[in-house]
Every structure is written in structure tokens, then in C-alpha cells.
Design brief:
By secondary structure, this protein is α+β, with helices and mostly antiparallel strands. The two termini are 24 Å apart. The structure holds zinc ion.
């Protein structure tokens, strides 16, 4: 079961022979960056060890800067600082809907952030490149929503989603699969940043046989982002299905039933 937990595990992957962003092999004289994933700015000083650092082409890394702009917002939320609702440029905001305080983000940016983490963890765990256009479904810890372009308020569509939220079934299923496999000590794992960044994954398949990786990602206590009165914590889960199939060393989900508590059904790291 591949895992990155100890310092030497992280040291081993710093010099993978390919760029995890474009998949290209490094050649003599390539301009190379050391990319921290997630960015170290997300973490308090006392939580900066051990970071996951991967090599990338300088040019590939520069293209990712747009998604880094999300960081300031995430940092404030993770560390519980109040959000200034006047910031229209920000990617997430806190609003009141039907008397409940809800965190809202534009899906695109949080999805970019998660995708970058997943691609880095895939490269670090399996020493394989994960293309950026790999099919996926992510369920972020934040409640995603469309904001009205004129008023900045959540749209009616958001209100509807708040009531029904079709994706909750998949969210609960993935959380359950991850908990079950963790009890069985059957997950591939990255545990970095003094334990404040935790990634667990296990491999299954769709009905058509396409192998998929089911993952959970936790950064600090971000499952509390979307907190609502009477609404459970919501962790980050998702899946992706590489065209290249399942890596040879990847861990396949157990079929065995192990008893485990599952009170927080939307949080793969919860009780
Ligand atoms: Zn590259």
C-alpha cells in the first residue's frame, strides 16, 4: 500500500523524473521548480513540516498561478478569520440563505485546487502522471453555488440545490467506502504538514469496468466550512478515472464488511 507519511517518504518523491503537471520528462538543462502541494501558505508556521514537494517545469507551474489566488480566501476560512462580504473578487463568500449562514464558492476555483492536489498525490503515490483532463467528480467541503452576476447573491438554482442536493448520495457513499477501508487499513495515504493535510484513497470501478480512485482530502477542519444548523459536517471526497487505468501498486477497495461508526455520513474523516 503506497503511503507518504515519514520524512524519507516525501524525500523520495522530490525528484521524480517527470513534471506532474504536463507529464513531460525532465531533460538536462530543464528549468525546474519545486512545487509545494498544497501551497505552504495555507499552513501555520508550526505545521509546515513535512510538506509534499514535487518538481515541475517552471513554465508549467507559472500557468497554475490563477488557482493560487484562491489561497487567501481558503486560509482565512481554515483559520477561522472573518470574511469580508464586500470583497466581490473573492472566490468564496458567506451569505445568509433562509436565515442560515452558508459558505459559497464558485465551483471552478475550489475544483482547480482539489484537482491540483489530487494530481500531485497521484504522482507521489504511484509515480505516474495524471492528465488534467482526467474524468472526475469532486465534492468539496464548501457548498458550491452560482452567484448572481449583478447582485452577488445566490441564485434561485442554489436555493433549489440547498433543498435537494442530488450529489449528497454519492458524497455519503464515498465517505462510507473510505471509512470502511480505513478501518481495514486498506487505503493509500498521504499525511503531510504536521498531520494537517490528510489524503486517503482506494480504488474501485464503475459499472462499465472503468477503474476509479475514490479519495478523501482534509485540510485542517475544513469539513466545517459549509456548516448549517442541523446539517452535518461535510468533508471533501471525490473520484477520478484515469484513461491509463489503475496503477499497478494502487490498493483495491475491500469487499469485506468491517464494523465502523458512521455518524457523520458526509465526512470521510469524521466519526
Ligand atoms: Zn511540465
Amino acid at each position: 500500500m503506497p503511503s507518504l507519511i515519514k520524512q524519507q517518504d516525501f524525500r523520495k518523491v522530490q525528484n521524480l523524473p517527470f513534471c506532474y503537471l504536463c507529464g513531460g520528462e525532465f531533460k538536462a538543462g530543464s528549468n525546474i521548480n519545486r512545487d509545494h502541494v498544497p501551497a505552504s501558505a495555507l499552513f501555520l508556521k508550526e505545521d509546515r513540516d513535512v510538506p509534499l514537494i514535487l518538481s515541475t517545469h517552471v513554465a508549467c507551474n507559472a500557468k497554475e498561478h490563477a488557482s493560487d489566488q484562491l489561497l487567501g480566501q481558503l486560509i482565512d476560512q481554515i483559520h477561522g478569520r472573518p470574511i469580508n462580504p464586500g470583497y466581490r473578487k473573492l472566490d468564496a463568500t458567506v451569505v445568509e440563505v433562509n436565515g442560515q449562514v452558508v459558505t459559497i464558492t464558485k465551483d471552478l476555483n475550489i475544483h482547480q485546487f482539489i484537482r491540483r492536489c489530487v494530481r500531485a498525490f497521484h504522482a507521489a503515490l504511484y509515480h505516474e502522471w495524471l492528465p488534467s483532463d482526467t474524468a472526475n467528480a469532486f465534492h468539496p467541503p464548501l457548498r458550491g453555488a452560482q452567484l448572481d452576476g449583478d447582485t452577488g447573491s445566490p441564485t434561485d438554482e442554489f436555493n433549489r440545490l440547498l433543498m435537494t442536493d442530488q450529489s449528497l448520495n454519492q458524497h455519503a457513499l464515498f465517505s462510507r467506502v473510505l471509512k470502511q477501508n480505513r478501518v481495514a487499513k486498506n487505503t493509500d495515504q498521504v499525511l503531510s504538514q504536521n498531520g494537517k493535510c490528510s489524503y486517503d484513497c482506494v480504488w474501485s470501478q464503475l459499472d462499465d469496468g472503468q477503474p476509479i480512485c475514490i479519495f478523501g482530502l482534509k485540510i485542517y477542519d475544513w469539513q466545517r466550512f459549509g456548516e448549517l444548523a442541523g446539517y452535518p459536517n461535510r468533508g471533501c471526497v471525490g473520484f477520478y478515472g484515469p484513461k491509463a487505468g489503475r496503477p499497478a501498486t494502487a490498493t483495491v477497495s475491500t469487499e469485506l464488511e468491517f464494523p465502523f461508526p458512521n455518524e457523520e455520513i458526509l465526512d470521510p474523516f469524521g466519526n
